[in-house]
Amino acid sequence: MTQYRIPLAGPYTSRVSAINASDSTSGYVGIGIVGLMIVGKTTQATDKDARYINCFVQTINDPVSGQKIVVATVKRPGFGTQSTPAAGQKGYSVMVWTGNGAGTSVISAFGETNSTIYNGANSIGAITGRARDLTETSINGTATLAVTSTDNTGWYADSGNMTEITDADWPGDTETIAGTFAHLDGFAFVMTTRARLWASDVNSITAWTANNFGPVNAYPDVGVCAIRWKNFVMAFCQQHLEFWYNAGLSPFPLARAAAMTQKIGAISADAIARIADTIWWCGTTPEGGMSVFQWDGNLSRVSSPEIEAIMILAGASNISLTTIRHFGRSFVLVKAGPTTAAYCIEEKFWFEYNSTTPLWYKVASVMIGGTQVNYAVSNVSTSGKVYLQNHASLAFTDDGTTYTARVQTAPQDEGTDNRKFYHDLNIVADTESSSSTMTVSVSDDDYAAYTVLGSVDLSASRPLKLTRLGSARQRAWVFTHSANTPMRLRRAEGNLTVGTG
């Protein structure tokens, strides 16, 4: 008899060639540098090989030796309802207005054609066009909310409702606005698709001056978005990235930090996100393809070939990024069509967010009295809700609907192609306070079919054990958990006998 152990953590599927085409594909419209345009149902990730859906790896290190002492697989928390400001509408942006009042005002934008901006459940005004994003600044000590719109208008609110920027030199009157505002040293900056970085007059969001711009032209390109990073404005174009700093010049105050220019662009303003002083985006290189990049003072590529294959099949127009923190870890959520690939920064681990309706198009967070709270809006659901993760009282449902955490391993052959006879399986997991059923299944034919071996209740007394588990030459294990409880798996192991042929 031989002991075996099932790896509950590992690399995301390595089968790039097994990425599924659409199950109702009727043909390809065309192939471009931003991906494939496919007629039929949007593509999804392959069902084969190792997959981690709604769960991620969590390692704990010994503080003395630095060695890993626990490797666990943990279910992500779900989203409840914070407020319903716009029933019947989709959400397009959310932020916590930290400069206003107590710094806990939840600002959201709902409405696909024309957006309405809400403070909590209360409207602070409608704008024309859809809000691209929500930003904040301080104008002479007054907290000011600033928004750009898809119809090239700009809007702001300080003590009153949303008001349009009507200066005759507003760049949206003559050029196409790209992305949203970046604020630095009393100036509001905005990019245009003409690859010009415009600046407002100092200490103003409403006053703009003709020719107060800098050309983002280290390479010929199309402007995408401007975002602040420390004391720089990062000016993203489709094929390159420039850094600008306040040099006190006039009329345009910024100068290009030429040595920092990167020959990597961004696919859209919607595909740029941040965590503190680290910027994340989906970008392209001249050689083609799409990757997720990180900038924290150094440039690094964090996406694997498997994740990039999913993004290419989804197409650039279907990709957006946001960020979230839970369980003491930070995550970049890459929404690529129906698939959301999630990257745990601390663990350098890719997995999937999945639900009946994705509720995490954009996420914002705040600490309230020592409690971390995450807010989110969905551009799929028309519930008009701002969703909530309150870390003092977590739920494991999404808007009241259960979702499933799934740990699926790569096929295991225990080092031999001889048939294995599995006697038992012991599962080591945290004990939950209420009924918490986890089902164990296997595939012995490379994921063509699955067999349920049985279930265990993670709230039950130990041991959690299944017996008489059949035989196989190679076996992929699947653990699924849909209860409204946490799930933290630490180990799965058992005994088998290796046959002679």
Overall description:
The chain is mainly β and 501 residues long. The chain has a domain at 170-263. 2% of the residues lie in helices and 50% in strands. The protein is built from 1 helix and 44 strands. Strands 1, 5, 6, 38, 41, 42 and 44 form a 7-stranded antiparallel beta sheet that branches. A 5-stranded antiparallel beta sheet has the order 4-37-43-39-40, with no helix packed on it. Strand 21 (232-237) and strand 22 (241-246) form a beta hairpin. The two termini are 16 Å apart.
What are its keywords?
2% helix; elongated; mainly beta
What layout of secondary structure does this protein have?
Elements: E1 2-5, E2 27-32, E3 35-39, E4 51-53, E5 55-61, E6 68-75, E7 80-83, E8 91-97, E9 105-110, E10 116-119, E11 122-126, E12 131-139, E13 142-149, E14 154-157, E15 163-164, E16 177-184, E17 187-192, E18 196-200, E19 208-215, E20 223-229, E21 232-237, E22 241-246, E23 254-256, E24 272-275, E25 278-283, E26 291-295, E27 299-301, H1 305-314, E28 319-326, E29 329-336, E30 339-344, E31 349-353, E32 362-368, E33 371-377, E34 386-390, E35 397-398, E36 401-402, E37 405-408, E38 420-429, E39 437-443, E40 451-457, E41 464-467, E42 471-472, E43 476-481, E44 488-498
Antiparallel strand pairs: 1-44, 2-3, 4-37, 5-6, 6-44, 7-34, 8-9, 9-10, 10-11, 12-13, 13-14, 14-15, 16-17, 17-18, 18-19, 20-21, 21-22, 22-23, 24-25, 25-26, 26-27, 28-29, 29-30, 30-31, 32-33, 33-34, 35-36, 37-43, 38-41, 38-42, 38-44, 39-40, 39-43
